[in-house]
Amino acid sequence: MSSESAQGALEALDAVKHRVDKDTTVCLMTEGLGVLDDVRQKIFAVPEKEPTFLLGSMSSKFVFNRNFDSVRQLRHGVWNITSVQRSAVMSTTEQPKIETQTNFVRSLQAAKLLHTEYTPFDSWFRYKLPGVIFDSAVEPVCLLLDVPYAGLLQNASARKLISSLLEEIVSVLRLMPEVGRGETLHELLDVDRAKKALYRRILHHRSRESRLVRDIRLGHPVNVDYLNGYFLRRAHALGVKVPTNKMMWDLVKAKNAIQAQERESYIRIEETSVTPEMEDQHTSTSSY
């Protein structure tokens, strides 16, 4: 299963849950973090009956060509896949799933175009985290101040907000057990280095419109619950205060709701061709 929208993935799984059992393998490919937690809590609450879950993250870019009913690759990359057990100690019911995961990954690796790699969770998390941090610390600032990527670094208020968001996120990451176990993640916990990485990414995207601003304007689903919302939940569990992230989470929710209300207020007009009979009727009516 592949879905950029976390909500889309949840809805899709909920629609087919009656066809999913412990012999099924589900690969979640969504933006943000914490989607699997919600899937397990809301859809597959019984551990013994849940499918095998894999987490995926793809740097390749594909588009669907409707004219030729085919898929075209726009950017080459890799598809990183990892697995996450419910607990650190694997139960006897989880042992058979290892073979299922292996077979699934081998099938994907047979498709050379996908460049599929199975990685430990630490490596996958290290690969995934920079994008999540960018979407949590930069995108909401673009929305709040109504500035494009190019205007962020010249705006002192924007830089201050980005720094505040980043510092709160790092304070949460430092206490997360999965980060503590991963030596490769420690470089992300240096605020100065993480800030420089964010600024480099902003410069790389400076000619583009903020994706969050565009998604809200176009009515696309937003994943704030699995970006700033993810760090809010983890912070609450760890006893950490993250007021700036809470403010940004509220802001994105409010902006999205306002935009949705505006779209609902539009009067939909269906364009149609005027037939000669309709034109004659209009002419005769107007003559009175």
From TrEMBL:
Any one Gene Ontology molecular-function term assigned to this protein's record: NADP binding
Key words, A-Z: NADP, Oxidoreductase
Residue ranges of every copy of the Ketopantoate reductase C-terminal domain listed in the record: 132-255
Cellular component terms (Gene Ontology): mitochondrion
This protein's name: Ketopantoate reductase C-terminal domain-containing protein
